[in-house]
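Q: I'm writing a short methods note and want an example of a predicted protein-small molecule complex. Could you take the sequence and the SMILES for zinc ion and return the bound structure as tokens? Please keep the output block clean; save any remarks for afterwards.
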Amino acid sequence: MGCHFVDKKEFFDSVSHMEEQIGQLYKQLGELKTHLAELIEENHSLQLENEHLRRRLDQSENSSSKRARKNKAESKGLEGQDDKAMDVGEGYDNLARLYQEGFHICNVHFGSPRKDEDCLFCLSFLNKK
Ligand SMILES: [Zn+2]
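A: Understood, no commentary inside the block.
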């Protein structure tokens, strides 16, 4: 009888011990979930930062290659027409921006500063597109 009681008590103890362990595992699971959420959030903000930096890099690469082309066009004079052909391939938007920034995009004066004057050659080129 006494023995039987001890068995019952041991069984009860081991069940409570399991319950305690399950409780601890549950707590650890919760902590892991919190940690995972933090990692996902961190990953997300790193991705955003990465995209942002990549855009900045693209922009600075575009503007520096544009400057290089402009200088080349200026130093080569009429041969700058070759560079114009390259720009057409790169897209109308780049040319329109270049014009907005105050440079000729026409065959005649490509790459040289407009000095805030509209150029009919440039405008007809832009309208053609
Ligand atoms: Zn022009």
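A: Remarks, as requested: The chain is about 80% helix and 0% strand. The radius of gyration is 35 Å.
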